[in-house]
Amino acid sequence: MFGLMRNLYLHLQKKSAPRSFTIVFLGLDGSGKTTCVAALKGEPTEEATQTWGFSSEKVEVAQSSVEVYDLGGAKSIRRIWENYYAEVHGIVFVVDASDESRLPEVKAAFEEAVSHAYARGKPLLVCSNKQDLAKAASMTANDLRDYLDLDSLKCNHLCVDCSAAGKEGSTPDESFLEGMAWLVRTAGVQYASLQARVEEDVRVEKEKQEKKMEERRLRVEKLRQERLEQAKAEEAKESPAEQQSPTSPPRQEPGSPEAVYAVEEEPRRRDEGESQGQAQIPGAIGA
Ligand SMILES: Nc1nc2c(ncn2[C@@H]2O[C@H](COP(=O)(O)OP(=O)(O)O)[C@@H](O)[C@H]2O)c(=O)[nH]1
Ligand SMILES: [Mg+2]
């Protein structure tokens, strides 16, 4: 009975907790991701500068608080995308529909992204962007849906024609904003399962990262020890005076009265040696 009440309490508490969404913007460099984010923030869209790496913004979409990740799309940094999939409730993939020459690259990047274990099945908005340009006429949302074979994906998806920069370079396209509202509402409907997945995937990733860090720490420590021993060996080679002669007394067994004496005496001898420059080490040649 107590268990039932507790579950009900936790369920109600979860339901009343404010929901917040995380959405990632993907797409090749120059496709219009940063312009889309500026449009969401209600900022002038003609000022987008190239994104290196990652930036995040808090925006309001469909009366919900949304954190958007705007990732760099240049080929050399595209591999960072996968570091963010675990955390997100939805994905926006932006395509420069006016640049036919890069469509094969778009398709490869898209397929790699949506097939990733942490991204697969999450709600997806595809933007056929730059529709204000004449060259985009041959790649409308319908064409793009076919080209990327969206209907084969097992996720809720929507493909929209849009012009994030707006015709005048300032008014954001309504269809993009409507697409975003659809994405957040769709993620909202599946929120409980998406959030559970996010929490689990983030936990697994965190564990993996911690394990990697620990392994790296151990590797560095081992390397440090090896270098230290190497340096000691080289130092010993360079100052033969401190080496033991073949006539050195036999090695004392740990715990023997001689060994205990040696351990107790050692610091004093070192102090004396350092301060007076004349340490007398039994058995050392030329000491
Ligand atoms: N004509 C037109 N240009 C756009 C549109 N969206 C973005 N751009 C321009 O495309 C360039 C790259 O945009 P940006 O947002 O930086 O792309 P990102 O690299 O994907 O973030 C910029 O010069 C934008 O002004 C659009 O809808 N129409
Ligand atoms: Mg950018």
Automatic annotation (TrEMBL):
<feature type="binding site">
    <location>
        <position position="51"/>
    </location>
    <ligand>
        <name>Mg(2+)</name>
    </ligand>
</feature>
<dbReference type="InterPro" id="IPR006689">
    <property type="entry name" value="Small_GTPase_ARF/SAR"/>
</dbReference>
<dbReference type="GO" id="GO:0003924">
    <property type="term" value="F:GTPase activity"/>
</dbReference>
<feature type="binding site">
    <location>
        <begin position="27"/>
        <end position="34"/>
    </location>
    <ligand>
        <name>GTP</name>
    </ligand>
</feature>
<keyword id="KW-0547">Nucleotide-binding</keyword>
<feature type="binding site">
    <location>
        <begin position="129"/>
        <end position="132"/>
    </location>
    <ligand>
        <name>GTP</name>
    </ligand>
</feature>
<dbReference type="Pfam" id="PF00025">
    <property type="entry name" value="Arf"/>
</dbReference>
<feature type="compositionally biased region" description="Basic and acidic residues">
    <location>
        <begin position="225"/>
        <end position="240"/>
    </location>
</feature>
<keyword id="KW-0460">Magnesium</keyword>
<dbReference type="InterPro" id="IPR051995">
    <property type="entry name" value="Ciliary_GTPase"/>
</dbReference>
<keyword id="KW-0342">GTP-binding</keyword>
<feature type="binding site">
    <location>
        <position position="73"/>
    </location>
    <ligand>
        <name>GTP</name>
    </ligand>
</feature>
<dbReference type="GO" id="GO:0005525">
    <property type="term" value="F:GTP binding"/>
</dbReference>
<keyword id="KW-0479">Metal-binding</keyword>
<protein>
    <submittedName>
        <fullName>ADP-ribosylation factor-like protein</fullName>
    </submittedName>
</protein>
<dbReference type="GO" id="GO:0046872">
    <property type="term" value="F:metal ion binding"/>
</dbReference>
<feature type="binding site">
    <location>
        <position position="34"/>
    </location>
    <ligand>
        <name>Mg(2+)</name>
    </ligand>
</feature>
<dbReference type="InterPro" id="IPR027417">
    <property type="entry name" value="P-loop_NTPase"/>
</dbReference>
<feature type="region of interest" description="Disordered">
    <location>
        <begin position="225"/>
        <end position="287"/>
    </location>
</feature>
